[in-house]
Design a protein that fits this description.
heterodimer; A: about 325 residues; four-stranded antiparallel β-sheet; elongated; B: alpha+beta; six-stranded antiparallel β-sheet
Chain lengths: ~325, ~550
């Protein structure tokens, strides 16, 4: 008895609701950009500078008392939040912990080490049994560079991949894949703006992984498209894309599911420190799977593709190409 | 019959056995670590030495410790150079006294020297004379240029500054020297396995595992410990007193409110020290004894001989520790520094003096300290999450593909063993995001197998025989596997290049995981399937 998530043969028409799915994606992308522009990201200290102190206490966190203490110390802008870890009992992690975030006072290159030490000492003096789990401080110089490196990294990844796919396939494939990729990255930034989850260095790592994953998915579909293009020379591009998507559907679902299973375990049990990171990755797998089917393929359909793969290098053959582009125009 | 040559089989089996062998020490982490420590200390370890003993390095976020990124204020050194040039310049210009007239120093930017001469007509003569002082630069990039630049300003001013080539050469030396001194200081304090690395042009990355507070590290490395013996011009109680060009106004440590005006240029400085020890003076107060090298001893002796009755100041990090009067000629070049020290302070001070002064100030740009509790929590959480993810994926694959799923599962287990073996042998660092990378690999590693299995299913469906279907499944899935993994690998490489710390750890496990999972799917699973097929010769197969 096999567990079959996807029936043996499927004949779904992925382009039936093309306008709806494509429209939804377009709206989501625009909404993400608007959210990013209006609400903005909740940058962590990696990108904004400042300090974070993570504490653990034997009993519940007295957030108000923490705030009062910070007020007395006059450390400027500071926030206190309690960390709740539902899986703490399972993993034996800190059950009562809090995050204290102190903003960088000015655009100093150097970190405000004295302030952090003062707060740490005061906390330990005031609250019995309080442990400092971690302290982190980033000065303005480094945070500025990290922003630059992050943007550079993501752009570089997109360009590198664009180039690779162009090399291995055709420029239309590259554009389709990169459109899907940019879609995923923008939607990730959008969801982080929407729910206000902290955006830090590890989220950049997650985004780059999403870039890799989203491509992985798209490339598998494209690989099948390339193969079918060679095999079914007369099939319309739309039918051919549909066929390829159906043929790879079972694999797409399987891989996404195993990855999601693994990531969910990490999300629930992996502890507070990487929860944001895992969240970004789960989100990325979901939108990445969606986009390889509903963004990359429609764009490929729209752009039309060179058909005659078998005679590569023989020069363009006029006849079939004309015919195919005609089909494509009808489809579009 | 399925085209899997014997040599390939043997090769794959050897790789798998090696992976198991080299990843095994990580299962007994505490024991192997203790044993390795014992061996490093020259004792007998209880881990058998015929077994591999390389472990995955745990990153600071898992082990706990302090991470500091500091910037060396390289410009500090330019001023020292100018202080050194001043007496030379004075000597040269005195030889041209007739043309140049009197020479005085004028206040200017730090790191430059501005001179006013008495006879404006002699400006050109003075510049030419001063240019004689310039030394050619011997570094590769600075060929053809000299270390200092002399230029005219106004009618009677002359500016001396370091040339750009000399500045970059100086910066390089300053940072290299700072790295060395930071390393010596941390080593002297007896910390385990610190990492001290130069980063970029003027930065130093310092990672010290096992310290609970970065303050401990900062106390040790943040102090410049610049010791100098300076000639005292005068003593004052006015904190706004004008020191005059070439002099400094420094506060006294012992007597708050009292200040000394001292010559900026030290008679002898800390780099001439050969030894420093904490000790006690005749009144049983904590003190630091020191000894100069031969050159320092001679200069100090000469100075004391010429200045009997005058004060000299012992200056530590721009504060006057004490200012004794020179009673008589002091030969031998040794002495003690007294002040209101505690024994702890003298112990620290002697470490710092022995290790040498930092040539320039360090500014802390980034600090991250992870307590050991949080590290242990993260390891525990990571381990549990990996286990659960692992088991869930194994069960899922078994349910979906039956026997072939089990083959894939064996490959997955070997895959994780290979990741740990590679990380251990190359000494890579495992961080918390790195664990996430492994979990992600566990999820994605089955992808290649899924691609192949789905392909085999399709071929079976189209009426191919089992052997042919398996063969075609592998052949046809190959390009998809290759392209899909190379694109992910590109992302991992970029992450490695731009990332630092934990993020870099993630990119390493992700990259290694991609390579091992392709190996596992294309070679290990295939070996299992082929061997099974050759033994059983099934008429039909179900994937």
């Amino acid at each position: 008895m096999r567990l079959k998530l996807v029936p043996e043969t499927t004949k779904l028409n992925f382009f039936r609701f093309q306008k709806v799915t494509f429209g939804l994606s377009a709206i989501a992308v625009v909404a993400s950009i608007v959210l990013f522009a209006v609400v903005g990201l909740n940058y962590g200290i990696d990108f904004r500078g400042g300090s974070v102190i993570m504490t653990e206490t034997p009993g519940p966190v007295a957030t108000q008392e923490y705030r009062d203490l910070l007020g007395e110390l006059e450390v400027g802008d500071a926030t206190v939040s309690e960390l709740r870890d539902p899986a703490a009992e399972l993993t034996g992690a800190a059950q009562y912990s809090a995050l204290i975030r102190i903003e960088q006072q000015d655009d100093e290159d150097a970190i405000q080490n004295d302030t952090v030490q003062m707060v740490v000492n005061a906390l330990q003096e005031r609250f019995e049994g309080l442990t400092i789990l971690s302290t982190e401080s980033v000065g303005a110089k480094v945070s500025g560079e990290l922003v630059q490196d992050g943007i550079l990294g993501v752009s570089l990844a997109v360009v590198a991949v664009l180039f690779y796919i162009w090399l291995r396939f055709e420029w239309q494939f590259a554009l389709g894949a990169v459109a899907a990729l940019v879609h995923d990255v923008i939607l990730t930034i959008g969801v982080f703006s929407l729910i206000g989850l902290e955006f830090n260095l590890s989220i950049i790592a997650a985004i780059l992984t999403i870039v890799g994953y989203s491509l992985n998915d798209t490339v598998v579909v494209f690989d099948r498209v390339r193969e079918n293009l060679r095999r079914y020379k007369k099939m319309t591009l739309k039918d051919l894309l549909n066929l390829s998507l159906n043929e790879t559907l079972s694999r797409t679902v399987m891989t996404s599911l195993t990855t999601l299973i693994a990531l969910s375990a990490l999300y629930v049990l992996g502890g507070e420190v990487i929860r944001g990171f895992t969240f970004a990755m789960i989100w990325g797998v979901v939108v990445g799977t969606y986009s390889s089917v509903f963004v990359a393929s429609p764009i490929l359909l729209r752009l039309d593709v060179k058909r005659d793969w078998s005679k590569e290098g023989d020069g363009p053959t006029e006849g079939p190409r004309k015919g195919n582009s005609k089909y494509a125009h009808i489809d579009a | 019959m399925l085209g899997y040559p014997l040599w390939k089989k043997i090769g794959v089996v050897i790789v798998c056995l090696a992976a198991l062998l080299f990843s095994a020490p990580n299962l007994f982490y505490a024991q192997v670590e203790a044993s390795n420590d014992a061996v490093a200390a020259g004792q007998e370890g209880d881990w058998p030495d015929y077994l591999p003993s390389d472990l995955v390095n745990l990153g600071l976020d898992l082990r706990g410790g302090a991470h500091l990124l500091v910037e060396v204020q390289v410009e500090d050194v330019y001023q020292d150079r100018m202080d050194g040039i001043w007496p030379e310049a004075l000597r040269v210009l005195r030889e041209q006294r007739d043309a140049v007239g009197t020479v005085r120093q004028v206040d200017t930017e730090r790191g430059e020297l501005l001179l006013r001469i008495g006879e404006p007509s002699g400006q050109q003569t003075a510049i030419e004379a001063l240019r004689e002082l310039a030394q050619p630069i011997t570094t590769l990039t600075g060929i053809g240029s000299t270390d200092i630049e002399v230029s005219a300003e106004g009618t009677d001013l002359i500016r001396i500054r370091l040339s750009d080539a000399e500045k970059s050469a100086t910066d390089d030396r300053t940072v290299a020297q700072s790295v060395e001194i930071v390393r010596r200081r941390i080593d002297e304090s007896g910390t385990r396995e610190p990492t001290i690395q130069r980063q970029g042009d003027d930065r130093i990355l310092i990672q010290v595992p096992g310290v609970g507070s970065s303050q401990e590290v900062l106390d040790l490395i943040g102090t410049t410990a610049k010791l100098g013996f300076h000639h005292v011009v005068s003593a004052t109680t006015d904190e706004n007193a004008r020191a005059g060009a070439g002099n400094l106004l420094l506060p006294s440590v012992d007597e708050p409110g009292s200040y000394y005006i001292v010559e900026r240029r030290a008679i002898v400085s800390g780099d001439q020290l050969v030894d420093a020890q904490s000790t006690f003076d005749q009144n049983n107060n904590a003190a630091v004894s020191f000894r100069f090298n031969a050159q320092g001893a001679r200069i100090f002796g000469d100075h004391t001989a010429e200045n009997v009755g005058n004060l000299f100041a012992i200056v530590l990090d721009d504060e006057v520790v004490s200012a004794p009067r020179i009673q008589s000629y002091i030969p031998g070049g040794s002495g003690i520094i007294t002040g209101r020290f505690t024994t702890q302070e003298t112990a620290n001070l002697s470490i710092l003096l022995r290790a040498g002064a930092l040539p320039a100030e360090l500014v802390v740009l980034e600090q991250r300290t992870i307590g050991p509790e949080l590290g242990a929590d993260s390891i525990e959480a990571g381990r549990l999450a990996t286990m659960v993810a692992f088991v869930a994926v194994l069960v899922f694959m078994g349910l979906s593909y039956g026997l072939f799923g089990l083959f894939a599962n064996v490959a997955l287990i070997l895959n994780v063993a290979m990741i740990f073996a590679i990380l251990s042998v190359v000494g890579a660092t495992l961080t918390l995001p790195g664990i996430a990378g492994i979990v992600l690999t566990v999820g994605m590693a089955v992808d290649a197998n899924v691609l192949i299995f789905e392909r085999i299913r399709e071929e079976l469906k189209s009426g191919k025989g089992p052997a042919r279907a398996i063969q075609l499944g592998y052949d046809k899935a190959f390009t998809a596997i290759l392209d899909a993994n190379i694109t992910t690998f590109i992302a991992a490489v970029i992450l490695f290049v731009i990332g630092s710390g934990p993020v870099r750890g993630f990119s390493v496990t992700l990259g290694v995981g991609i390579v091992t999972s392709v190996f596992a799917a294309l070679l290990i699973t295939r070996l299992l399937i082929v061997t099974w097929f050759d033994l059983r010769r099934p008429k039909t197969i179900e994937v």
